[in-house]
Design a protein that fits this description.
This protein has two domains: 55 residues; 145 residues, Jelly Rolls (Sandwich), CATH 2.60.120. The chain is built from four helices and eleven strands, in the order αβββββββββββααα. The strands form two sheets. A six-stranded mixed sheet has the order 1-3-11-5-9-8, with helices on one face. Strands 2-4-10-6-7 form a five-stranded mixed sheet, with no helix packed on it.
Length: 246
């Protein structure tokens, strides 16, 4: 194989690769993917300050799925904030009957209050007590939720903040916390979408709804084809480069 042929083949593969990416982005845009949040499955794994889920760039939209139970009565998130920055915060529940009456509280711990227990910082509470359930359908994951409240909080300090989810009466249940408004997705986010969709649907399921399956989702096949195409093109480019070097 000549150098010219290798060069042409490599660029043909690159054109194919970027064409597939462009087609997928257009498809996902048409189905409102750009209106979605990047999902984080925290569940019951961040029950202490030391195990807080660290997030970057709070202006970028994210949704953190949490579970409060007997072994994890709190769920912690941490991020770096700047004075004057706006924290866009939304709190909701999966639309399940067993959590219909669940009203968790979110506590914002500022950099100057790192040694305080969340329960002591009553002035920083975002309470959902008495909140009405506003139905919300997320089209990309095809899940239903109830929105409890939306807030915009102006940060007053620069430094490390903590967001702590808890229930003052130690009730258990599922909730999600969404932050940020700017929609931005990287290649790693797109690559992990099939598993993320499955996990989000599992979070929203109960015995009545049955169990979720990743291959029943309407976007699973296109995403799977995309991932296979990306892998194939990347491997082909690598092989051509190895042949060229030899």
């Amino acid at each position: 194989m000549t150098v010219l042929t290798t060069f042409k083949n490599t660029w043909l593969l690159k054109i194919l690769f970027f064409s597939l990416i462009s087609l997928t982005i257009i498809t996902l845009t048409d189905v409102h993917f750009v209106e979605s949040h990047v999902p984080y499955m925290a569940l019951d794994e961040n029950e202490t300050l030391e195990k807080a889920l660290a997030l970057d760039e709070i202006q970028i939209s994210k949704v953190i799925y949490q579970i409060l139970n007997e072994s994890a009565e709190q769920s912690w998130i941490t991020f770096e904030g700047k004075s004057g920055q706006i924290l866009h915060l939304e709190i909701g529940l999966p639309a399940l009957e067993q959590v219909r009456d669940f009203r968790p509280t979110i506590v914002l711990i500022e950099p100057s209050d790192p040694n305080h227990s969340p329960i002591e910082l009553t002035q920083s509470y975002v309470s959902t007590d008495g909140a009405r359930l506003t139905p919300f359908h997320e089209p990309f994951t095809d899940t239903n939720s109830w929105v409890l409240t939306k807030r915009e909080i102006s940060l007053t300090e620069t430094g490390r903040y903590y967001l702590v989810s808890l229930d003052e009466e130690k009730n258990t249940g599922k909730l999600w916390v969404a932050i940020g408004k700017e929609e931005r997705f990287g290649m790693s986010d797109i690559a992990s979408l099939p598993s993320s969709i499955w996990e989000v649907r599992k979070f929203h399921e109960n015995r009545e709804n049955g169990k979720s399956s990743p291959w029943t989702h309407k976007f699973f096949l296109p995403l799977l084809v995309l991932l296979i195409a990306i892998g194939t093109v990347a491997l082909s480019i690598l092989v051509l480069k190895l042949k060229k070097s030899n």
